[in-house]
Specification:
By secondary structure, this protein is mainly α. Helix content is 79%, strand content 0%. The chain has helices at residues 2-16, 22-28, 32-40, 46-77, 79-98, 108-128, 141-158, 165-171, 175-190, 194-228, 230-251, 259-280. It is globular and about 60 Å long.
Length: 283
């Protein structure tokens, strides 16, 4: 149980860092297949599935809570370096996916899968550029539906190896707002601020419901796709990964750029690449 919770913590931490794939971390720790099986057989094997899922969910929640504050501070204090760190994490994770198709023939349908998802990500970045970190989280029916949909999309991508769910949140302009809302919710919880907690629930509950539904909805689809169209799936994932650094550059503001900022940014980029390469070695 403790070991599964700790593995869940790693997945939670990975999912909150743009560019790092929680799915890849699950693969590297040897629990990805168990997670997908538990999600797709929840009702037919309820007790067994819950034994797998509950500790992972608890650990993932702890990982997200622990890192949310740090990520928010990093964006506020060093946006240029933080974004380059995330770009490095993305670039460093690419070899772990490309080796899945290395040495295999490339067909037109593979290229098409790559291009569709490459332009999907860059297109989302272009459309979301004006929204950025200021997505509207005020409580109304339209925003509740939006948050529900965003939760579905984000969670669906969280469980795909090589794809970052938090990156998709960033593309849709909801990453920083949701991150801030999580931190605000934690502050209200520590202060026993009931009204603040209720306000936070109006935002986080529809998002959370979307996350849960998204995970279970995509799990069976992933199982089928990787059984029947594995090479197409990896080429689509490669398209997502290659487009993500471009999306970060389009979406984010980098603050004042100085010589020191550039040097430290390059260092952050290299560190991100090295970390991601090391994490991907076992996957």
């Amino acid at each position: 149980m403790i070991r599964m919770i700790l593995k869940g913590v790693v997945i939670g931490v990975a999912n909150i860092i743009p560019g790092v794939s929680g799915g890849t971390m699950a693969v590297s720790m040897g629990i990805y297949d168990k997670m997908i099986h538990a999600a797709t057989h929840l009702f037919s094997e309820f007790k067994k599935s819950m034994t797998v899922l509950i500790p992972i969910v608890i650990g993932a929640a702890l990982g997200i809570i622990a890192l949310a504050r740090i990520i928010e501070i990093m964006f506020a204090k060093a946006p240029f370096q933080t974004n380059l760190l995330f770009i490095g994490l993305i670039v460093g994770g690419l070899p772990a996916i490309t080796h899945k198709v290395t040495g295999k023939s490339i067909r037109g349908s593979h290229i098409l899968a790559f291009l569709i998802f490459f332009f999907l990500v860059t297109g989302l970045a272009l459309l979301g550029e004006q929204e950025g970190a200021t997505a509207d989280l005020s409580f109304n029916l339209i925003n509740v539906v939006k948050l529900f949909g965003v939760g579905i999309v984000a969670s669906a991508t969280m469980v795909i190896p090589g794809v970052s769910g938090s990156m998709m949140l960033m593309l849709m302009g909801y990453y920083n707002p949701i991150l801030s809302e999580i931190n605000q919710f934690i502050d209200n919880l520590m202060d026993f601020n009931v009204s603040g907690l209720l306000e936070g629930c109006l935002i986080l509950v529809p998002f959370g419901i979307g996350v849960v539904i998204g995970i279970f909805a995509i799990a069976k689809m992933i199982e089928i796709i990787f059984e029947n169209y594995v090479e197409h799936a990896y080429w689509a994932i490669i398209g997502l990964i290659v487009a993500s650094p471009i999306a970060i550059l389009l979406l984010n503001k980098f603050g004042k750029i100085t010589f020191v900022t550039i040097i430290t940014g390059i260092i952050a980029l290299i560190v991100g690449v090295i970390i991601s390469l090391k994490l991907g070695e076992e996957s």
